[in-house]
Each structure stands twice: as structure tokens, then as C-alpha cells.
Queue: 2 jobs
Job 1
Amino acid sequence: MSTQPIIEFRNVSKHYSGVDAVVGLSFSLVPGEVTCLLGENGAGKSTVIKMLTGLETPTDGTMLVDGRETQFTNPREARAAGISTVYQEVGTLPLMSVGRNFVLGAEPMRGFGPFKFMDIAKANRIALEEMRKLGIARVTDGNQLVGTLSGGERQALAIGRATYFGARVLVLDEPTAALGLRESATVLRLIEKVRDSGVAVLFITHNGYHAHATGDNFVVLRRGANVAQFSRGDRTVGEIMELMSGGEELARLLTSGEPLAAEQPSPQG
Amino acid sequence: MTNADLMADKPPAVAPRATPAPTRLNSRIRSLLGRPEAGGAITVVVIYVFFAIVGQEGGFTTLDATASWLSNAAELGIIAIPLGVLMIAGEFDLSVGTVVGATSITVAIVTGYFDMSPWLGIGIAAVIGVLVGLVNGVIVVRTKLPSFIVTLAMMLILAGLAIFVSSSITGAASISAAPTGAAKDIFAGEWNGFGTSIVFCGVLLVIATVMLQKTRFGNWIYATGGNESTARMMGVPTARVKILLFIGSSLGAVLVGVIQTLTFSNGSISLGSQYVFTGIAAAVIGGVLLTGGFGSAIGAVFGALTYGIVSLGVFYLGWDANLTQLFIGILILVAVFLNARLRRLAVGRS
Amino acid sequence: MLDTSRRRGLTGAYIASAAGLAITLALAGCTSGGAASTKKESYYSGIEIAYVSGPLSDSFFPPMYNGAMQASEDLGVKVTWIPIDEADIERTSVTTMETAIASKPDAIVVGSFVPSAVDPLIEKAVDQGIPVYVSQSGQSSWESTGAFGFIGQDGVASGTQAGAKLAANGAKAVLCVINVPGNPYLAQLCDGVAEGVQSEGGTSEVLNIPTADSTDPTKVTADIGAYLKTHPNIDGVFALNAAVGTYAISAAESAAPDRDIHIATLALSAVGLDDVKSGKLDFVVSEQPYLDGYLGVLFAVQYVKFGLAPIGQVNTGPLFIDKTNIESILKIAADYPGVLGSS
């Protein structure tokens, strides 16, 4: 498997009027590896996504795609380069079937001339196959409505859809944020499967545990700047959370059981 | 779990329970009941049986009566089908009623006042319909204002224009026209009381169903109504979809305007003003979801049939005609409950 | 499948809807006696008449309805009142007539509001062997349809007489207010008014009240008032039903209090009669719709039984009520509400 990074950020910054959303960020996305982008809300994660998906362009620094300097001016260019994003809201339509959801925007057709029709049978087949590859066995009918699927299964659909239609880079924006423990575990397993198939995954999250469980590389953002970059095994969960702002208190709470600083009796008594 | 939860694309709040494996018949029935038109189908059958039994003595089941309510329901169906499809895409068109009136005046002025070929009047009306739909669609898509407001404004604009033009040219709000020839036979023809509107409605039903179920444009319609931003993210040209559907809904109104004007040999600006209410009611009774993303053309037809049966059936029961509205209102509520319940069935975990 | 609290909520909803439906059905059962009155054993027992006319929400029609119902009681026959919807005139004119035919009555009495649409249906009924008598509307074309007679007034001629009378009273520019736009008969009435006014040397204009406003008193009053303000030459108003007459009086009082405006209406009401007495209205023109209702049923019944009916048009109007005959009229209106006009 090639280890040349598909995406490389070199000293990338993004300034909005008066705000430094991202400052001097450098990292790479390598096929077959999960890179976790960690940070609290407002740390700059969504700006990074926007630059990757072509909604914004960097104000400083360079972005390289397959080693070549590139600037995406719109989302279509990013998609054409093989960058797919699955947003927090997953982007599936609960009142439409699994098959229809899967092929939305790229529907397979059959027939010819004025009688071109959607090949629903094929759509269902592809959808079920891709989801099975990701380990989802419970969904057996391509016609069932996506609303009947669990959160994890819907993520599988969205992720399967992205990889089937040629994603080389999969950007996952907070995929476990709205899910419970069991569903989150399903999604983490999905991420591993996708990684194993050779896709470069950018896993954006504020959940240190989930990151720790799946990540190969870690980039921690705080107020737009990269405060840490390390590989799997270099840090513990507690250390990871400490690196995210506000994490110090929580980490201490979890690891030592000492009372929080705010609860210490004030000197005035 | 409410519809809102489903719309928000969040996982269901209830943990999946272990249920016994459903039998094949069970799942067949389940999937049938989960179809958007299931509620409408049940409603129309129940309503028809009711009126057939209670209204039989008054003549409801005679051929004459059937021809009457069926032709009427078909006209409502011609409005409700494209309106329903637009609602599936997540938008409303409150201007349909005034498009019927404007069409009526146009055809009547051309045919009755100026004594020219009805086809000219029909052609002009069709152009007006396309323009109205285009304007509605472009404004909604560009300004992102709710279609409810935009089409409401269009309704008032069109109503004012119609009466202005009609008064200016003819000095009247109602113009008689006595068409002859092919146009009359095609649009106002009838066979034993069964109007050609029934044929038009049938054809429209087939076209709309094939489009929704079998084409990728249909897939786009459901997606646009289900969640427009998701659809756009997936590359669906939602703006184009909506504009085309607004045009479709206006053209449906034009067709009904032509049919009725040639049938009554009379054009009037107030023709069809009821359709803004009855069209949406028919779609809703037939299972079209008000928030978009779910529904079917056949459902809209079931809704139109239901409305047609009730609005004429009450006469055969000798009821006070004002009770029609009370009955329809309660029926709408019952139908909406039924449809919501059946939708829950469709999205329930197997 | 659903948790119990949600299931209970839905069940409650169904019970409520079922209750609602049951109440509707009960109401319907009780009121069906009103729309079609009971028959007692009589000389004409067993005869069923379908009367297709206007809605009771339009103040013109209640006296006609009362007349028809009284005839039904006196003669011991069943009369079913089938009203059109004035917001949807053309379509409901057709559907009510089709319903009347399909209910296979012994005879139909019909007001043909849209003759181009209804006359073919009258022909169809006659072809099927159902005799048809035309009442109040449709006087210009009934003969060719095969109907056996017409009762009412010559609307256009009455309009002409009314217009002439208003002009003779001093009105130079008369406004004719059409409250049901799209009703061809009302348009013809105003044409008649125009002719009458012009014959006395005056001018006439027409105001079409938008359909959306026509059931809203405040709106109609405002619409008329606005017209009076913007057309200061108007010194006469002719309204086509009693309610609009009262709106016209209010409008004149608020929008043009210093102008001497002569107001007259077609069809009367208790308030209208008081207004004639007090001078606010110059006169009211009555078609005596109670007679249309009563005699319409009577003639239909006798035609069914014996084949006898008056030949041609029977005139029930126009009766002009002004200061010269108001007193006696007022007494009848007081003693018998709902007969002369709506109360």
C-alpha cells in the first residue's frame, strides 16, 4: 500500500475578518490510516473541513493533493479529487429507501432514449453489498426505509456510499457525537473497516476516547493552532484529553479523583 | 418518536427490542400498509361504502350519480396530482385557484368575446401557466422565502390582474363562450355523463407515478422534499426540480380551467378558487406529508376521490349541505392521524 | 411496537375523531329533516321534488327556502333543497343539477344561475322524463330547454325600472354593486340598471366586489366606501341583495356623509324595510322570492299529478316598496318573519 499522502497541509492558515480560525497547520492524510483531528468546539475543526471540501480556500500556506499544489474553488472539485465528507447529520433521508439513498445523485440507469429508468434493483444490490462489506448484517431489504435503520447503520450507508463512489479521502465530521455507546462502537468498527480497504480517513471528534480507540495519527487543535501531533500509542487517553482545552479539569477528575479547582474553598472562607 | 425526530435523521430514541420473527404474510401486509397511499386507499373505500349504503335510497349508487362525482373528483385530481408532487418536493402552491380563474377568463375572452379559435385561448392560457409557475419557482429558489408566502402573493396578484384585464376588455367578470369543434370534444366531451376529465386524470396519474417511482428525477423529488441540504450535498439540482414542479402545478390548474370553461360554456374569474383548499386537502388525505419527502400520486387521487364522494354524497343523504364542510374537516383530521400512524408502522423496526 | 404512553395518546386521538364523526352523523340525521321536510298523508303524498337554488348564507334565498318548505308541509310532499356554492358557481351549478337528476325526483325546480352550463342539464332531465320548472334565474333561455315554465321576474327589466326610478329620484351617476362576481345574471341586472338610468339622462358604473371579500361585511363596506371616495360624482347606489344594501348605507355615511346618495336594493330584509321607512333607502325591489319557493313547488306538484301548469312566465316581481306602501309591508314583516325577506 502506497504511503504517499493523498492530502498534505503545509503551514496552512485561514483568517476571517478579525478571527484566526486556523494558524500554521501542517499534517498529512495517508491511505490506509485514520487521522484523528481533535479539539473542542471553536478550535478550528470545521474550518479545516471547509478547506478540504472546497468551501473555503486557505489564506496562507499550501495544500497538496497527490503531491501537487492545489486549490479547491468549489465542492465539486474536491469531490472530483476523491474527497468525500460525511457530516454529523449523516445526510441520509429517513423516508426514502436504503437503495434510493445509496445512489442519490448518481442513480444507475437502464433502458435507452426517452425510456431511461432508474435501476432500483441494482441500486438495492449495491447498497446492501457495500453495507455488508462494512459489517452490517441486519439490513437485508434494499427497499426498507432508512428511518428503520439504527444510527450506526445509517453511518454505514453514508460511508459505504462515499467509498463506493470513489472516495480516497473520507472526512467524518463528529460521526459519534449523537450516538450512544453501542452505536458508537459500531461506527468505530466501520471506520476501521474503511481504513483497511485503503481509504485515508480524517476522523474529526471531540471525544478523546473514540479517537484513542481508532486513530493511527492524532492532530490536536486548540484555538486554531496545532498544539500536538503524535501517533498511536504515544499518549494515553487522559493525556489526550488534557491537550484539548478544558480537558485538564476533566482529566484530573478521571485520573486522580481530586476535587476540581473550582470546588476548593476560597481563601476568604 | 415524533415525525420531527424522524426528519432530524437522528437514531430512534427507543432501543430495538427483540421481536419474534415476522411471518411472510405479516411483512407483506406491513409493507403494503407502509406505502404512502395506504391511508388514502382505506379512507376512500370506507367513505364510498358508507355513502353507498346510506345514500343508496337517495340515488348515490346510480350511474348518473357516479358519473357526476367521478368527473368532479377527476377535476380535483388533475389539480391534486401535480400539487401533491410539488408538496412531496417540500413546497406549496397557493396560486392554483387563481390560475384556474385566469385561464377561464383568457379562454372565454378569446373564444366568446373575440370569437376566435379556442385553441388560441388554450395556448395563451398555457403560456400564462408556465410563466406563473416559472415566477413562483424562481422567486422561491432565489429568495429562499417560504413558498406559502410567495404563492399567496402570486395568488393575489393574479386575482387582481384577472379582474382588471377582464373588466378592461369586456367590462364583466363573467363571460359566456360557446365553443364548438375539436376543443370542446376533447376537453368538455362526455360519455354518458362521464367527462373526459377522468381520462386526463388517469393519464396524469400514470405519468406522475412513473416519474416518481421509476425515474431519477423522481428520486430527486423525494430527496429535495426529504432534506434539501442533504440532497444538494449529494449533487441533486434542487432548484431545477422545484421550478419544474411549480410549472407542473400551474399547468394542472390551466388544464382544469380549460376543461371547466369549455364544459360550462362560461368563463369567470372566480372559477376554481376553491381548489387552493381542496387540492391540498386531497393531497393530505391521500398521504402526502405536509413537510415533504413522502407521498404518492395515487394517494392524491384517492384523496380527490374521497373529497368528491363526500362533497356530492351529502346531497343524496338529504343532509344540510353545510355539513359537508364539517364532515370534510373531521375527515381530514382522521385521515392525517391514520396516515401518521401508518407511517410509524413503515418506519418501525422489524 | 410503540411504548404504551404513545399508544394511549393515539387511541385517544382515534376516540376523539370517532366521536366527532358520530356527532356529525347525529347532527346530520337531525337536520336532514330541515333540508327535506316530512310528509304527512295527503292528496299529493308520495311526490318528491328536488329544488336546486342558492345557499341560505346569501340573504336573498331564505324567503324562497321558507316558501318551498311551507309548500312542502301544506301539500304533504317531500322537497329536497339543494343549494349551490356561490364561491364556486359554475361547478356547483352543474353538480347540484346532476345530483338532482340522479336522485330521480318526480320533478325538479331549478334556478339556472349559469344558463350555458345548466340549460343542457335541464334538457337532459327532460329527456329522462323528469319535468323541470325554472325559478328565479334563467328567464332568458328556459323555453328552449324543454322546461315547462318559469316563475320569477324579468331581472333585466326590473333592473331597468329600478335604474329609471333612481334617476328620476335625482341620481345622476349610479353605481351598481355586484357582490357575487362571476354570476352572469347579476351582470345582466346591472346592465338593465344602466339602461334605466341612461333613459333618464344619467350614467351608470359597476363595482365588482372581489370574491374573497364578498362574505365579509367590513370588507364590502370598505370597498364601497373607497369607491365612493374616489368617484365623487356617484350619487346613487344599487345593491343586489339586502345585506349589501345595508353595507352601502354604512359606506355612504362614513365615506361621503355630505353627499346626497340615493340608495336602493334588490330584495328586502327587516332592516331594509326600516331603512325605507327612515328614508335611508329610496326603495327596495322585491321579487317576492317566497312566492318563487311556494308556487314553484306547487306548480311542480300539480304538473306531476295532473299535467297542469301555468303557461309561460309567471311574474312574481318586481314589487317596488317605497315610502308610499311601506307601512302595510312593515306590518306583514313583523307578523311573519322570513316571508318577505330575511330578518
Job 2
Amino acid sequence: MNRSISNRNILDEFAIKFCNIVEKYADYIIVSGFVAISSGRVRGTEDIDMIIKPLTKENFRLLHNNLMKNNFVCMQSDSYEEIYSYLSSNLSVRYTYENLPLPEMEIKFAQDELDNYQLKTRMKLTLTGLDIYFSSINMNIAFKEEYLKSDKDMEDAKHLRKVYSNIVNEDEINKIKKKIRELRLN
Amino acid sequence: MRDKTHDEFIERWAEFVKSNPEWKLHQSRFINAQYEKFSNFLNNLSKTKEGQRKIVELYNIKNLKGYKELLKDL
């Protein structure tokens, strides 16, 4: 494990390496906790959540092989067919570095209109210093306040509201919250 | 929110992040320390009786082949 102190941390390096491989095969977004953490929230996390545009089985095979070639392993299985069957059933799968169960990247296929909208409105966040795609700040605030709602999530939302006060859009947040109620809370 | 002082801390820290580019250095120290601690713990646990079995259960590892070095006794 790297002991040096630099601006980049272990989670950043893990995320960048993983995203650089995924982007060769599919549109993706990083969502939830890591959006807040890479925007300065100081808290622990075991995983990074990623949503990817659904892939064909063949393209997923190519992605999985590339991940394995770069020392990532899937906790569920080595078989791309088995992993693909999880993803196709709207279940998430977890990848880690070989021989190290944390940190992990939890990935799932986009499953509905809301996920597709997240992918469509994805953005890079200069403040994070990371050249990877995140779901929008308004989307993350809406999900945390309307759907996830734990203390940790409400604190993440509060942090994001403060740090990104220049791009927080209440109309957009309310529109997303309405969609969450329609699609996820019924 | 957990309590008022915690709430105030979140506000103060968010303000710090907005106005101080060096926030990342402080945060990276914190995150790297957590993972270093985790890595050391995992290493110690793997050497104990039943430690490797516990790691499999803790992290719900189904693909043991992916963690051959860590779980070499299984």
C-alpha cells in the first residue's frame, strides 16, 4: 500500500484506473458517496458506486477481460457470463484489486429512465481534480435527500449544497425528486 | 443530523473546502490512513486461526480464486 502523502489518495487512484478502462466500452457515471468524498467530504467508505450503460454480452466480455488484465477481480465470479447474468437481472457486482477486498467498485447497469437521465446529464467536476464522470450535483442531492435519507446521506447533501452553491438548482432537484417518487418509491 | 455541533462542523468544513485548495491534502491523509489501517488489519486477521474464513464471510467473497494470496490456506 502506498504510504506517500500526495494530493491523490488510494480511492482516487482506484477510481481513475477503473474508470479509464470502463470508458473504452460504455458510458458510465460515479454516483452517491464518492461524489461527496471527492468533493471534500471527510468520511470513510468501502465502495464506489458506478452505473454503466447496458452492454451486450460480447462487449461485457471484453470489458471484464480488460479489467482482469489490469489486476481487478470480481468478488462474485471469474466467469463473465455469470457476472453478466447478475447485471442483466439488475443486480450489482463488485470489483476490487486482486487479493485486496477493499476498496471496491460496485457496478450496475442503468435500469430505468432515471438512470438514463443520470447518464445523459453526467459531468466532470473540476473541484475534485479527477478526470472522470460523475452524476450531476443536483441529481446526487435529490437522491440523498429523497431516497437514501440516512444521516450520512443527509450530511453529504448538505456538504454538496454548500460546496456547489453556484450550480445547485432547486427546480431541477425538485423535478428529480418527483421522478424518484414515481419510479423508485412506488 | 447527529447533533448541532456535528452539523456545524459539516458547514465549517464545506466552507474550508470552498476556500482552501489544500483541502485535498488533508483529506487524502485521512483516507490513506484508513486504508493503510484496513490493509494491516486484514493482513493480521489472515494469519489467525479461521482468519481467512472470516475474511470470506466479512466481504462475501464468492470468487476465492481472485484472492489466492490473501486466502492461500483455503
